[in-house]
Amino acid sequence: MQPLETRTDYTHGQLDVLDVLDSPLEQLQMWLSEAAEANILEPNGMTISTVRQGMPSSRVVLLRGLDTGLVFYTNYLSRKGTDIASNAFVAANFWWAALERQVRIEGKLEKVSAAESDAYFASRPFESQLASAASPQSQVVERHVLEQMVTDLRATHVDSMPRPAHWGGFRLVPTYFEFWQGRKARLHDRIAFVLEAGIWRKERLAP
Ligand SMILES: Cc1cc2nc3c(=O)[nH]c(=O)nc-3n(C[C@H](O)[C@H](O)[C@H](O)COP(=O)(O)O)c2cc1C
């Protein structure tokens, strides 16, 4: 069978308005924990879509914090970083195939505080610090030039380095969530959360 002709029937679970928690952030935390327990590779990997001048662009980043929003870290001068500087509205997506679950999120990004970014950067392994400090993310580069940049940086630091100003966190402050659970015969469950006057309203959407 050709991969493009594959048809999977989803039978893992089901979801009702009454099943989901009243807080979508807590519901996401619960599903993330269940994805981790299911030994899914990078359960906190999420696709972030930015839009610049009407043109969308997507890539995976790792969720590193979940509080009033969804926190991830990146290079502020990257393609996504400069997209966000011109338009802070983004969409995010998780897909956990083994659990037959998808989560869609929409909202606005804000930079996390410098202190929060400093603390997270300091918690990273030295090699990760070097790579993210040296890499001119999203720029055209030769592999040997990139490796030389890391070597040069390693020569001037021992086992840690300060966070460079071009690298730090963003917090996605959500205004919309959708929790999707695959069901039999394409009659999937979709429970949406819409923020209205500070209150999350839940509703079922047609698959
Ligand atoms: C599983 C996975 C996790 C990733 N995590 C991050 C991350 O946390 N931060 C980041 O900047 N890039 C991360 N990346 C790389 C991005 O997908 C992307 O290649 C990079 O950020 C440059 O994107 P841009 O040119 O659109 O800015 C990850 C990629 C994968 C596949």
> What is the CATH C-level name?
Mainly Beta
Biggest β-sheet strands, sense, barrel: 9 strands, antiparallel
Q: What is the C-alpha radius of gyration, as a whole number of Å?
A: 19 Å
The count of DSSP E runs of length 2 or more, i.e. the number of strands, is 9
Index terms:
Pnp Oxidase, Chain A; binds flavin mononucleotide; 207 residues; single chain; 5 helices
Concise overview:
The chain is of the alpha+beta class and 207 residues long.
Question: What does this entry look like structurally?
Answer:
The chain has helices at about 25-35, 80-85, 115-125, 125-135, 145-155, and strands at about 45-50, 55-60, 65, 70-75, 90-95, 100-110, 165-180, 190-195, 200-205. The protein has about 210 residues and is an alpha+beta fold. Strands 1, 2, 3, 4, 5, 6, 7, 8 and 9 form a nine-stranded antiparallel sheet that branches. Helix 4 packs across helix 5 (about 145-155). The protein is globular. The mean pLDDT is about 95. The protein binds flavin mononucleotide (FMN). The site of flavin mononucleotide (FMN) has 16 residues, from strand 2, strand 4 and helix 2.
